[in-house]
User: Fold uroporphyrinogen-III C-methyltransferase from Paenibacillus borealis.
Amino acid sequence: MKQGSISIVGAGPGDPELITVKALRRIQTADVILYDRLVNEELLAYGRKEALRIYCGKAPGQHSMPQEGIERLMIKHASAGSHVVRLKGGDPFVFGRGGEEALASAAAGIPYEVIPGITSAIGAAASAGIPLTHRGLAASFAIVTGSRCHDHAAPVRWDALAHSVDTLVIYMGVSHLGGIREQLLKHGKDAATPVALIENGTTARERTVTGTLGNIDKLATAMKISNPALIIIGEAVKVREQLLALENAARSQIG
Ligand code: SAH
Assistant:
């Protein structure tokens, strides 16, 4: 029997062109593709006609397939000799439970590999014109979960983050914006710190709104920002405003 394998693959942040060549090649040769909600479905068209495509997405607050079920399915198909591609939004090791899937593959003795993807922080920041580091404005950034239920054993250290990191990129945070704002203000972050919210980053439906730490939850509600969205907090957000102002000035000169 053919030896099966598992590729844990990052699909990139949303724009289907932002996938790696290696990831695309694995999709093209897969027997089984297990894909998540945030994967751009256009990418599935690159798979072989006869490849089995299985949706494993979890809508927020709902669990269409429990994590253990996904891991069992992945191992079942690979054990039967299939090449399984576990396709995940962004990068598999950034809030993607890719680590757990790698552990499950290794424990089952199945050959596996992990193919990185552009995580949504990197993709969305580029698309919105926000350099996560910028000379004179930001020398460090951190990727943080805003979801309190994400990991009770390792709570987010808002106290340390408020002081020691220049740009904060918060995943899964839009529905907890009030709490995040409170935490950061409590630990001394300036209410005037620039903030951006990016919804559906890198896709045709991308929307970005900017404000300050002090007013961002009201802005998010007013603009009806919903998932998937990222929060970027820090002085580097100002570069977006500078870029837009320069682009407008250049346009009005030409016009
Ligand atoms: N592994 C993924 C993250 C999964 S967690 C990655 O590396 O990007 C899911 C969270 O990612 C969402 O709640 C949202 O905060 C963020 N996210 C994913 N895709 C996004 C997109 N296109 N635009 C904005 N945020 C996105």
